[in-house]
Amino acid sequence: MTEQPSASGRDLPPEFVELIRNWFGPRADEVLEALREAGVDPTALLGAAGAGPPGAANIFNQLNQFLRSGSPDGAINWDFALDAARKASLTKGADPVVAAAHTAQTHDAFNLADLWLDQATEFPANSAPGQALSAAAWIEATLPRWRQLTTPVAQSLTKALTWLMDQHADEHPGAADFTRDASKNMLPLVGSLFGLQLGMALGHLSREVFGYTDTGLPLVEPGARALLPGTVAAFARDLQLPESEVRIFLAARESAHARLFQRVTWLSDHLYGAVETYASGITIDLKRLETMVSEIDPADPESLRRAISSGVLAPLLTERQRSALRRLETALALVEGWVEVVTGEALHQNLPNLGRLQEMTRRRRAEGGPAEHTLATLVGLELRPRRARQARELWQAVTDHGGGEAREAIWAHPDLLPTSEDLDQPSAFWDRRRAVQEADAAMDAEIAAFLDHPEGADPDAPAA
Questions:
Q1: How many CA atoms does the CB half-sphere of 215 hold within 13 Å?
Q2: 8, 17, 218, 237 from 22: Cα distances, Å
């Protein structure tokens, strides 16, 4: 006699039924019944995760990998995130192959940009050659920094969920066993979904960036520089400009960033210090999270993905965090403004379409792309220099009055950097700085005179 499938498993593919039984154990029949009644389509479920080509074996293998990729404590599985990033990148089309011609063109562009930048800034050229990268190579090179940025958020989410589960168990002792089962199943799922969301955002971002420095933060070691030939070519086509001109412009921006971060050794720590101050105080809105948890269907991972992408995890900001974000925003604007002034000075006689290229770059940085918005939702950071225009005006005023030497001298110490208040009146920064310098010089002169003649004796008077 042929064994009939259980009611809970009917209308669902047998591979999917087996997977759910392996995952949910004793509660599998309950979950399968809920899935059947909800009309869940496993193929559509995997579509939300950016799964590969259709086919039962492929779909269920990927779903099994997805469900089991999470850590029991909710930590992100970074190998899974990397894999998700690669797959998401490929949804934008095949990753353009970096041919020998691309490498040669990129090297030439960086070399020419260095020659022109030497005339515009005292910060020396980098010793490392510029690279031509594929999108996949960019993902692998920058993932360690993204890990540094996003781990605190994932950890805070895990702590918040664990706290909620414990609270629920205390308030409903009769449901303690169910709560523990839900927590056991949910935490790995949260880690998987967070890694999936992050990986997909990075994968899409890898097809939008020109190099390492688009976000303003140094995503690799100071001094490294690269261009992605596929993105450069697409940008040139969109603008209907010669690709060689666009390549040199972008190489100059990348090289200017690299010179700044390599020469100003404290700058990277200054930026990431602000990020870490922000991250160290991350707290999750527990009321919103509790509402989210109550609305999640445990049989539908897609409902949790939607909740995560909706911004429910957006951190609550303390005053200390707001201060850190203001410091980060100001520093990012100053970096962007400095790069634009220096590259403008270096290229204004060499690139006929410089103005148009600058305007389009400003627009891209101001608007951001879908991938940047996803990262902002996940991490709570918008890495866009909102005050870049004021910073550009400030650096231009310093250059006009004091030249490149005075401009670069401001990077000597973080205490010398313009503040957010300075950006309110950028054209007056030079006058304020000169007034402070003159006051400091007068004070130094008085102190020196006192130390030389503490009793006020006339140095020209004859000895007794």
A1: 23
A2: 15, 9, 43, 51
Give burial (CB, 10 Å; 0-12/13-18/19+) of 79. exposed
Lookup: tokens for 129: 């050659």
Q: Among positive and negative, which fits the CA dihedral 258, 136, 250, 423?
A: negative
Q: Which residues contact 116 (CB under 8 A, 6 or more apart)?
A: 252, 346, 347, 350
Nearest residue to 258 (alpha-carbon basis) of 201, 339, 163: 339
Query: Per-residue confidence of the chain (464 residues) as pLDDT tens digits?
Result: 444 444 344 455 665 566 556 554 555 665 556 445 444 454 444 443 344 444 444 444 555 555 555 555 556 778 888 988 998 899 889 998 899 999 999 999 999 999 999 999 999 998 788 999 999 999 999 999 888 877 776 776 666 666 666 665 566 555 455 445 555 555 666 667 677 778 888 998 999 999 998 888 889 988 899 999 999 999 999 999 999 999 999 999 999 999 999 999 999 989 888 877 777 666 656 566 566 666 666 556 566 566 655 555 555 677 877 888 888 889 999 999 999 999 999 999 999 999 999 999 988 887 776 556 656 766 666 666 678 899 999 999 999 999 999 999 999 999 999 999 999 988 889 888 776 666 656 666 767 776 776 665 555 555 54
**Closest Cα to residue 211, out of 162, 125, 306, 142?**
142
Element (H, E) at 407: helix 388-409
User: Could you tell me how far CA 61 lies from the centroid of its own chain?
Assistant: 31
Through-space distance between the first and last CA atoms of the chain, rounded to whole angstroms = 129
CB 369 within 8 A of CB 206: no
Residue 315 has φ and ψ, to the nearest 5°, of: -70, 150
Cα(242)–Cα(240) distance, rounded to whole angstroms? 7
Per the CB < 8 A criterion, the answer to whether 23 and 67 are in contact is yes
Task: In whole angstroms, give the CA distance from residue 187 to residue 161.
Answer: 8
pTM confidence score = 0.73
Residue extents of the structural domains in the chain? 1-70, 73-464
Residue 59 neighbours by CB under 8 Å, 6+ apart? 42, 43, 46, 51
Q: Please name the amino acid found at residue 340.
A: E
Q: Provide the residue type at 139 as one letter.
A: I
**Long-range own/partner contacts, residues 453-457 (CB < 8 A, 24 or more apart):** none
